[in-house]
Structures are given as C-alpha cells and as structure tokens.
Amino acid sequence: MKQEELKLNNNNIDQFIQSINLLELDKKIIERNEIREKIHSISPFKNEPVDFVKWVKNDLVHSNDYNPNSVAPPEMELLRLSIDSDGYTQPIVSMADPDGRFEVIDGFHRHRVGRECENIQKRICGYLQLVQIRETQKDKTDRMASTIRHNRARGKHAVNAMSDIVIELKKRNWSDDRIARELGMDSDEVLRLCQISGLQDLFSDQQFSQAWDAVIVDDSGFNSLDESDISTESIDSDRIFHEWQDWECFPSGFYSDKPPSGMDVEQCEIAYSKFLADIPRFEKALIKLTSEWKNSCEHYLTNSKMNRIAWLGQASMCIDSGIPSRFCGGYNLLTEEQQKDADLKALEYLNIWLKLNGRNKLDLESVKSKTKADIY
To answer: Among 116, 135, 154, which residue terminates a domain?
Structure first.
C-alpha cells in the first residue's frame, strides 16, 4: 500500500473513531467489540483466546457448577484491593452458552469482585472483560479440565472438589490415563482422589451407569459480597490476630461455598433457623465453640468492628452441624422474639469469653456491626 493511501486510511480511521465516541455507552461498547472481533479474525494470533478481549454486561456472566478453586477470605479481600488499585489485569476465561450468556471457566473470584463491589462495578460500567475458550473445548468435560488446569497452574484447588470432578469425568467414561493427561496429574494422584471419594472400588476403568446423575447445587440463594462489606477504618489496637490457616473455623467448612452433602440452600437455612430457635442446643454449641476454637475466637471476638453476635451464631451452627456461614439467612426465618432470644444467648457467651480473657462486658448494641467483611 502506498504511503498516501495509508495516510488517507488513517484519516478515515480517526473520523470513524470520533463518530463512535459520540455514541451512548452501550452502543459504543458494541461497536468496540465488533471492531476488535474483526481485527481478531485476521490476526496472526487469532488462535489465542487472549487476542480478543470482549466486554460483556455482568448479568450475562454466570459461574460454573464445578470449580474446585477456593479463596480464603483474606485473599479475597486482597484480590478486591488489587483490582481496586491496579485495575483488571487479567480477563475472565469464559464459554458462550446457547442462550447468549457466558459461563465462567476461570476467574470466578474476579467475576465476583466485578459484580459485587459497588465502586468497581461502577468504574467498569456494569461490564466484565472476557476471553472465550476455543470452540473445540465446549463439552462439559473439556471445560472442567480447562478449569482445573487453570487452577493447578496457580497451585490452587480444593481437594474434595477435585475429587468430585474426577468422579464426574469417570462417569463420562474417561480412563485414568486420560484424566491424568488432561488434568496434569500422575496416576497416583488420580487414585488418591478416587479414594477421597470413598468409592475407589468402583473406579477400575469400567463404564459408569448413565443413570447416576451428577448433583448440581443451586446457588441462587447465596449471599453476595458488596462494597459496604469492606471496612477501611483503623484496626483495634488490642485486637488479637491469627493467620487464616490457623483459624479452626476454616478447615471446618465455615467459609465453604456449598451446602453439606445431601442439602440444598433452603434446607440449610431452615436447619439454621431451627438450630437458633433451640436455645439449649445453641448453648451447647456455644460452649463447644468457645472452648475448642481458641484461635478463631481470639481473632473474631476481639474485633470490635464486626458483628460478633452473628459470628457466634454462624460458627456455632458450623461446629454443630457443618453448615457454612454462607447460609445464615435462616436467621431471618425466626420470629422477632426468637431472634432476640438467640441474640441474648450469644451475648451471654460472648461476655463469658470476654471476662475469661480479661476484657470488658458489652451490651447487645455495641457488639452488632455495620459491616460483614470486617470479620476477616
């Protein structure tokens, strides 16, 4: 192409960009995506998903039902802070659904921050940045394998959830060798994950019955993190801190995203309401909690900026029945009188703990916080 023609084309491009800049936001983003996609189609890197980053409205992006990656609360807050300070430096890996929505393959927590933290959501105009996996990886087993490869490359995956995925792949007639090859494992690790499931005798490269359906957890009732959950106030000078790996509540499932086996969201919340309404049972769990979870109690109950009454209720339920704190919505199923009775019982044991640890007694109002994420 001659230099004069190139200059003319550049002028046309500048005029075109100026015309796009006059459009309203949503139309501008549509035009931006279409231009990027056309450039991607002729790019020498068109086989690399990262060559085309597409901005999509966040309500069109949803999580998958099998991601074994879990992020501890402090790391989740660090991710929020990183995105708030540095911006998004990694896109969310996705796959397009037939209905025009997008399923997250990798980047679930980046997806949560973009949707649930108000100032970040506002900054990116209610959109999320996506790349899409290759067309050849649209089968669910391939998507699951892709998710695990992303997680393992970062050294992050939850063993129990990994075991669940191995079960799913075995159901779909994947051999041990194929699982090991696709997930980047060795045969011993595949065997260990089968053993964790308690079903190792069923896994001998035989075909699975197609009647054994996978259980998909409905997470529509899960509580979301929002910007009001993040406190920037100063830290208590007399607060006791423990690293998250030393909290007894963490390995006990307090921060798990999913209900215990055999339960759904509604059943968890109903169980939580029945637990709080049964004051003798609640008291027994409070005694066990304050005597056995030493580090967790020190870390949380010395934090004056959090709702310590709520934490005692949620932690007691976890130590009693293994139900994670995420299903604390059962508190709202109680009558006002039942809520008051549960609050006062939790306050009683909070003050017992405070007295035993040389701290001042508190009233009900002073131990209820304005935020949720301060418990981290």
So the answer is: 135
